[in-house]
Amino acid sequence: MKAAVLYGDYDLRYEEFPEPEIQPGCVKIQVKACGICGSDIPRITAGGAHYYPIVLGHEFSGIITETASDVHRLSVGDHVAAVPLIPCMKCRDCEQGHYSQCKHYTFIGSRIQGGFGEYVVLPERNAVRIDPDIPFEQGALFEPSTVALHGLRLTGFQGGKAVAILGGGTIGLFALQWARILGAGKIVVFGRDKKHLSVAKRLGADEVISTLDDGYLDQALAMTDNIGYDYVFEAAGAAATIQLSFDLVCNHGSVCMIGTPTKSIEFTRRQWELLNRKEFHLTGSWMSGSAPFPGDEWALTAQCFADGRLKYDPEIFYRQIPIQNTMEIVEALRERSRIKGRILLLHENASVR
Ligand SMILES: [Zn+2]
Ligand SMILES: [Zn+2]
Question: How far is the CA of 38 from the centre of ligand 1 (A)?
């Protein structure tokens, strides 16, 4: 098969790669579209991969081309999205349904071969059937949607309340959509990128606030009659937004950190003391999934993609690039320090449904 193989920083080559063989309990997926996640960027640009050469990619969709004889739930021809986490299912965390905390897991596209390859073999339970009318491009957004919903669920999200979403990237835009679907009151999305904020508007944000504007904090608090936000979801992983979440949350509200910081963060004493004074709830969120595996995050995404409640806006992607154009992919990643947005890779057969 063909695959975009990473040999080192910015060294991506489209070449022949051994096709994975079907295993008991597994399905073989012909990958159609695969997103480049924020977590893949350091793997491609900053020595962050577990080994080389490696075939990355954990956000992908495709068609099942082969099933093991003991597979009964899925069939050849099914359109599916991949669940990249393969937990051990035996440890204490797995027994409690906390799959993200499993220490004996493996992960597609970082520890084992992923969706930058034309074919991937996965355990049956790691493939979620998607409606065949859903474009594969949208199917590649399945995993980011589950990550956002996982964060909302960890706060015990209730409708009718004011919600702040910090960051207008893919996760932020899905957190916004889930907040809307789950009955949020006012939703305000904070970001720096004009295009992201206009997509957020289209996807149902009541207000958008540019954090580049002077006085945006006062403006944001005024939108809640200076009470603050019942829920704050941090989906940028930047120091400024992580600190901002402490300012925005209301007394006894909830802050959930979904974004992963890339640098150290310093809090002033006054900033940290907000946690004491407001007595707000602070939680982190890691990946997605719940019991029974892979969990409601996946089931609800499949349902809301199919019935149209989760909307697909092609502008979520900053670029869609044929996977064989490795030079173009590498260029886009270099650019990415200036231009934010998700890059989607399309396999050569992506248009064949
Ligand atoms: Zn990801
Ligand atoms: Zn485990």
Answer: 6
What are the pLDDT digits (tens) for 13-59?
A: 999 999 999 999 999 999 999 999 988 998 999 999 999 999 999 99
Backbone φ/ψ region at 31: left (φ over 0), alpha (ψ -120 to 50), beta: beta
pLDDT in tens, 267-287: 999 999 999 999 999 999 999
Q: Ligand nearest 58 Cα, by number?
A: 1
Angle at which helices 142-154 and 296-306 pack, to 10 degrees?
A: 120
Question: Domain 2-141+312-346, what fold?
Answer: Quinone Oxidoreductase; Chain A, domain 1 (3.90.180)
Q: Which residues are 143's β-sheet partners? A: none
Ligand number, closest to the Cα atom of 87? 2
Please give the pLDDT value at position 337: 66
The predicted model scores a pTM of 0.95
pLDDT band at 353 (very low <50, low <70, confident <90, very high): confident
Q: For residue 173, how far is its CA from the centre of ligand 1 (angstroms)? A: 14
137-165 b/e (C-beta count within 10 Å ≥ 16 → b): bbbbbbbbbbbbbbbbbbbebeeebbbbb
Distance spanning both ends of the chain, measured CA to CA: 19
CA–centroid distance, 39 to ligand 1, in Å, is 6
Helices and strands: H and E segment counts in the chain: 11, 17
Q: Are 293 and 319 in contact (CB under 8 A)?
A: no
SS3 breakdown of the chain: % helix, strand, coil, rounded to 5?
Answer: 30, 25, 40
Q: pLDDT at residue 315 above 80?
A: yes
Domain 148-284: give its CATH architecture.
3-Layer(aba) Sandwich (3.40)
Task: Map out the domains of the chain as residue ranges.
Answer: 2-141+312-346, 148-284
